[in-house]
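ligand=nicotinamide-adenine-dinucleotide
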Amino acid sequence: MSTPTTLTIPTVTLNNGIEMPTLGFGVYAVSPEETERVVTDALAAGYRHLDTASAYENEAAVGRAIAASGIPRDELFVTTKLWISDAGEEPARRAFGRSLERLGLDRLDLYLIHQPYGDYYGSWRAMEKLYAEGATRAIGVSNFHPDRLVDLDDQNEITPAVDQVETHPFFQRTVDHQVMAERGVQHESWGPLGQGRSDLFTDPVLTGIAASHEKTVAQVVLRWLLQRDIVVIPKSARPERMRENLDVFDFALTDEEMARITTLDTGASTAFDHRDPAGVAFLGNVRFDT
Ligand code: NAD
């Protein structure tokens, strides 16, 4: 294994005072067999923020890579998520314990409600207690549209530290971002690269801006998100792309370039519509052996 680099990634301070690296590494749809190698390579490339979920079924492999890396625990920021079939106060507490055990950790940095379905108010109560006990340094949500985020925030003790939602040039989430900013919730993008969509990588606005900075489209998109104060967690199984996706702190987009990218927004998901009844029914029936 190559020696981990000492690259310093900027952090953002969450609403409870803890620091979160603004650029992390996601492992969605990385098979359990491949995950240990991929995460080992990502840590060697310099990533210190990892994003997994019980639903990805690769937490144990993430944990093995963390343990083998020898990187001090306090230099890592680890997020995992609670799946719908574990929603509710007691099930959520049990699921948290199983995730922690699989990851081989004694505390988490960020625990998210993966989807706004099922008894997620019960889940939130369990998570507030886990947070108060110090079992996780922050708690938050994912895939919450502004209405659900506002209601959860108003009806509970703790404001979510983060809302992780699909965000990329074709789905920019401007209103969501505004609501999060007003309430002190950190916006985190999933699918920052449009999940590898070819029309993103060939878009003329993005390729034009990339050429003028001698950067790639992936780097321009990640930079655009970071300049909007959005945390990013791109995924790649390839070490050269892992390094490419980290190399975004030596250039800046102009206001005019930021504005040109704004014009690409379609206002719609390119992955999954969280308000589509058929989609909600589908997800609610997906069960994992967590
Ligand atoms: P992504 O936008 O990060 O795209 C990943 C794909 O983009 C790769 O598989 C590869 O095909 C391509 N790619 C990556 N780097 C590239 C580069 N430099 N040049 C060209 N192509 C490149 O998609 P994602 O993995 O779905 O999202 C990132 C992370 O967000 C996930 O791994 C996961 O941790 C998280 N996520 C969360 C949710 C949720 O519901 N909360 C949903 C999806 C993803």
